[in-house]
Specification:
By secondary structure, the chain is α+β, with helices and mostly antiparallel strands. The chain has 2 domains: 83 residues, Phosphorylase Kinase, domain 1 (2-Layer Sandwich), CATH 3.30.200.20; 167 residues, Aminoglycoside 3'-phosphotransferase, Chain: A, domain 2 (Alpha-Beta Complex). Helix content is 41%, strand content 12%. The strands form 3 sheets. Strands 1-2-3-5 form a 4-stranded antiparallel sheet, with no helix packed on it. A 4-stranded mixed sheet has the order 4-9-8-6, with helices on one face. Strands 7-10 form a two-stranded antiparallel ribbon. It starts with 6 loop residues before the first helix and ends with a helix.
Length: 266
């Protein structure tokens, strides 16, 4: 468990009150009044993301968690190797049974950030998610366990070159879209990638098929998106490689990917 933010960090963000741990994520997010405070995982990404989100215009199609600066104007509080970031609380709850609505919110969000330049911090990332993304796009070879290799083989055999424009996208939508009555969906916890927007939608579909009991018909409902089958193939490769690098495989986890692979390749 991640300890709550220390008092000096809360003071830096102008927070007053006792932190309350929030469910979800990696267990490190804390609500203090109208502010959510969480540990910084990669400072260059945090600074870029917070600056970008601060400039996103209001929309009738989605909400965002507006970033909160420290009282001295920074985006990060605390020690350099143990910093914290903050954002405003947005009402709502995760509903993984609404993948279509999450994808629609993602599409609107991507349109709003489409003109942002490619972030330089992407070249510095070496975490399992960054490696999985590069393998999916043939920028790295797949160096994985036998369990992952067996899942990847039919996907890699079906992968073909594509030519689509890239932009900044959210690569982890299903668990990071909040729904509240009478309000547009809220896109939170932006996982930044530089890929075609249809790939981000494909990751959401892959997650819904593997982990959230979505019916295979979800694949066809979004078939109008560019290079859809190839995006789905890359989405599954990305998730499988990341899963392999980030932890150990249980039999039910291996089994969860197989119907999704069959739906994508059918």
């Amino acid at each position: 468990m991640i300890a709550p933010p220390p008092a000096d960090v809360l003071a830096s963000f102008g927070c007053d009150g006792a932190p309350v741990r929030l469910d979800g994520g990696k267990g490190g997010s804390w609500r203090v009044g109208d502010v959510v405070v969480k540990p910084v995982e990669f400072a260059p990404e945090t600074r870029w993301r917070q600056e970008a989100l601060a400039a996103v215009p209001e929309s009738a199609e989605f909400r965002i968690a507006r970033p909160v600066r420290t009282l001295d104007g920074d985006w990060i509080a605390g020690a350099a190797d143990a910093g914290w970031e903050a954002s405003q609380v947005v009402p709502g709850h995760v509903d993984t049974g609404r993948p279509d609505d999450a994808i629609r919110a993602g599409i609107a969000f991507h349109q709003a950030v489409a003109r942002l330049p490619r972030p330089g911090f992407l070249d510095l990332r070496r975490d399992p998610w960054a490696v999985g993304d590069r393998v999916a796009w043939e920028e790295l070879p797949p160096e994985v366990s036998p369990s992952a290799q067996a899942l990847l083989e039919p996907l890699l055999a079906a992968r073909r070159s594509v030519d689509l424009p890239a932009q900044v996208v959210h690569g982890d939508l299903p668990g990071n879209v909040l729904f509240a009555p009478g309000q547009p969906p809220a896109v939170i916890d932006w996982a930044v990638y530089w890929r075609p927007p249809s790939w981000a939608a494909a990751v959401a579909v892959a997650d819904a098929l593997c982990w959230y009991q979505a019916a295979p018909g979800l694949v066809d409902r979004w078939a109008r998106l560019p290079e859809w089958r190839q995006m789905l193939i890359r989405a599954l490769v990305y998730r499988i490689v990341t899963h392999d690098l980030a932890g150990h495989w249980a039999p039910d986890q291996v089994a969860a990917y197989r119907p999704a692979i069959a739906a994508v390749l059918s």
